[in-house]
Amino acid sequence: MATDLLNVPENPAKGFNKYFRFKLGRDKYSPANCTAVTSDNNCTISRHAGTSVLYYRKKTGYELFLAVNTLAFSAATTTIYHLLLDSPYQTEVMLCIGSTNFAYGAAVAAVHPPKPFKWGLISAAVFLPYILRLFSNFIKRYK
Q1: Which residue among 9, 19, 52, 143 is least enclosed by CB atoms within 10 Å?
Q2: Partners of 44 in the beta sheet?
């Protein structure tokens, strides 16, 4: 049986909204200017607020994650485009895909630290599914 009353969970069924409100003794919080609080309550301060914490911890891992995430996002939008090709909503779908791609690029640029950015890697990840689809169509046409 637990002896520390702070670690005993309350029953959320009795008061759902009251249970999930912030409680100072129970919930952890980040002090001002901290991006992460370690287990011993030390503050790790990043140089720029709102930037990716993964970039400061593992730069190569961040770039790999960003490239693979962008490739997956681009493959998904390519699939949606080709599934709805020749549909009555083709223009609307192209507008949505274009604006979603623009918003994704803006979000990536917003969370990246103000250091040199490898746009070539991201551009390759964005355009690779489209290029592979064109290549596949070209091969099918002349087979």
Answers
A1: 143
A2: 36
Mean pLDDT of 13-36: 63
Per the structure block, which two tokens stand in for 43? 């503050």
CA dihedral 99, 102, 103, 105 (to 10 degrees): 160
Q: What are phi and psi of 21, to 5 degrees?
A: -75, 155
Segment 88-129, tens digit of pLDDT: 888 898 899 989 989 998 888 888 777 777 778 788 888 888
Question: Residue 31: which of 22, 43, 21 has the closest Cα?
Answer: 43
What one-character-per-residue DSSP string does 16-59 give? HHHHTS--TTTS--PPTT-SEE-TTSPEEPPSSTTS-HHHHH-H
- Amino acid at position 70, single letter: T
